[in-house]
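Lecture notes, unit on binding sites. The following record was shown on slide 14. It pairs a sequence with iron/sulfur cluster.
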Amino acid sequence: MSVFPLKFKPFGDGTLLFADDAGGFFKADVAFLERYAGNGLNPNDEQFLEDNGHSFREIDDLAYTGFAYRWANRLYAPTNLDYVILVPTLRCNLVCGYCQVSRVNENAPGFDWDEGTLNAVLQFLDGLTTRALKVEFQGGEPLLKLEMLERVRDFCRQRFDHTEFVVCTNLQAVSDKAWSFLSAPDTFTSTSLDANAETHERQRTITAEKTQEFLSNLRQAVDRFGTTKVSALPTLDVRNLPEPTSVIETFTSFGLRSIYLRPVNYQGFARKRFAAKDSAADWNAYHSAFIDALIEYNWSANEPVEEYYFVHCLRRVLRAGHNGHADLRNPNILGHGYLVIDYDGTFYPTDEARMVTRVGQFDLSMGNVQTGLDRTALDILNAEASNNFHPDCVHCPYQAFCGVDLVDDLSRYGRIDLPKHLTDFCQRHTHIFDKVFELIYSADPKVQKSLAIWAGMPEYEAALARVHQ
Ligand code: SF4
């Protein structure tokens, strides 16, 4: 019998967590590790490993093929380009201290798409082979260029079989025409709600009047369109974190039940203002406390609440195929499945790459909509876009669930070859997966209730938490 390679790490209760390259996992004691490493597995070990798909007898037997299938399913293969982020203007009517996208003042000239850029964008979209397209409008504040949004949407609706539009707006000043635009069934609103009114005012709106304008617009959006069409994200300053309960209270008061906690991103303008480069430990402690607060809340709540990214990671542990988040994929090939078109027509592989380029750190652009796509520089970077052969990740039990974020590494460290455990990406994901496994192996009924809800199961299933005795 041959055992597929097992990676392991201490679990904190004297046992160890083991995982294979296809994401199969279990807990066992140090004695098992010694037998495994010393080539001295006993019949009980062999039976357990065979029963749970961690071993095979011959190359190409059913166990081998099954493992290869599970391993391959863990990988992300970009398909057609079917998702574009469009930035028709950099102008904005707010001046948020941590703005990542190098916005410019509302009245600044020269930072909008002109007629030529719009036509080139439409021509580019016309050339896509996909039949379904998702378009995200970003800025600046995209509602300042509403007529461009209307023309893109009209074009896409007649060109593609299925379309979806997301407007990332600060919901600060919404005209009647903008409300009407947002009310369409294929159009979704994404906004920012920084924890609670007090934090939002400090970080974004500055005056009580502007805060009230925003809160009333958010209320109106939720009331008119429903929470399936409106999402809000909090961006938090690691140096001044709000009480988790106050964030949960604020979001649930709007009926919003998915909270995507994000620390101020160490990119773009935020990079200059917030020098908290190594804040992973503080953020991780807060994130952990937030998950605990959600578990407590969900125990007695009629409508449960989730932290979006934690649930995404949990689902990646439990099942293959959860590749919907562009920051957590393996391989994470840049510039293929989706791209960004900036206010001047420049292509970027991601919004973060746009920010890194705009502040002059690295040029991660990939051509211009007027002259065509150029992936030369990116393809060099893409050679490193997988964690499968990374000398640190190959020893990590979380490898099959984890991913790669080269742009984040470049932005923070100016290089992509730091030992993984020194990177913010690795520190944050190690923490999240530690927490995921803490919950999976918890006997606390409160934890099990939230875990089942977040995993999408009718009830907690003990078989998830395999232990080899
Ligand atoms: S980045 Fe860190 S957590 Fe992710 S697989 Fe690599 S070593 Fe593990």
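Take-home: The chain is about 40% helix and 15% strand.
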